Amino acid sequence: YLPGAGASYAFKVYGGYAKVEGGTFGYTAENTTPRGNGAFVMQGAAYITGAIIQAGGTTGFGVWTDATVTFSPKNNDNDAIYVYGASTGLTLENGGSYPSLQVTINGGTFEAGNQGTPYGIWYGNGNATLNISGGIISGRNAGLQIAENPGQITRNDGELTWEEWTPVWIYTWTNKRKIQIAGGTFISNTQAIVSEVGDIRVCDILYS
To answer: Is 110 left (phi over 0), alpha (psi -120 to 50) or beta?
Structure first.
């Protein structure tokens, strides 16, 4: 899902720390069509309170090796942060070695286009910690695609939306206690939560 650390991005943190309070990344005033790659964080940290990040490439925002990223929109306004990618809004990548990384989403909008099998968030690193306490996460195939045995995923609030399939798609994992859903709204024409692992039941991951 990611072109790699050596590629060019509209916003890139490779070591160090960046705080983003506003700005548009991914297209120019002369050409409002998103092009190329959006944002990328590796071996560093980013704290984002406001930004528009759009990518014509696969993913809007990629998080890779040993990174910490927090999305915390101003005034709890989901419109203050907008992340868009042609196939995924936000990607938690494994880099081939499954390094530790942490992503916290307190709000914002994460959206996928129509390229391939679109997901709002693609969780592809079993050593990653993903905390979701708010936000709008949407994708045609799934709002949240869990493609690895999760290190830790918690979701306390926020809204997952879909166009065709399901808001949460549990692709594969073995430790069912590593994901906890304590609130939020799940809507689908078919099934709100889907597991491809036979021994995972909805009651195993829902907490009051």
So the answer is: beta
Handedness of CA 134, 138, 142, 146 (dihedral sign): negative
Q: Region 141-166: what's the mean pLDDT?
A: 71
pLDDT band at 196 (very low <50, low <70, confident <90, very high): low
Strand pairing partners for 152? 129
123: which strand partners?
92, 146
Q: Determine the pLDDT at residue 170.
A: 60
* 3-state SS record for the chain: CCCCCCCCCCEEEECCEEEECCCEECCCCCCCCCCCCCEEEECCEEEECCEEEEECCCEEEEECCCCEEEECCHHHCHHHEEEEECCEEEEECCCCCCCCEEEEECCCEEEECCCCCCEEEEECCCCEEEEECCCEEEECCEEEEECCCCCEEEECCCEEEECCCCCEEECCCCCHHHEEECCCEECCCCCCEEECCCCCCHHHHECC
Whether the per-residue pLDDT at 45 is higher than 70: the answer is yes
Residues 73-124: tens digit of each pLDDT: 999 898 999 999 988 999 998 766 666 789 998 889 998 888 877 888 888 8
Strand partners, 42: 14
Structure tokens at 134: 């708010």
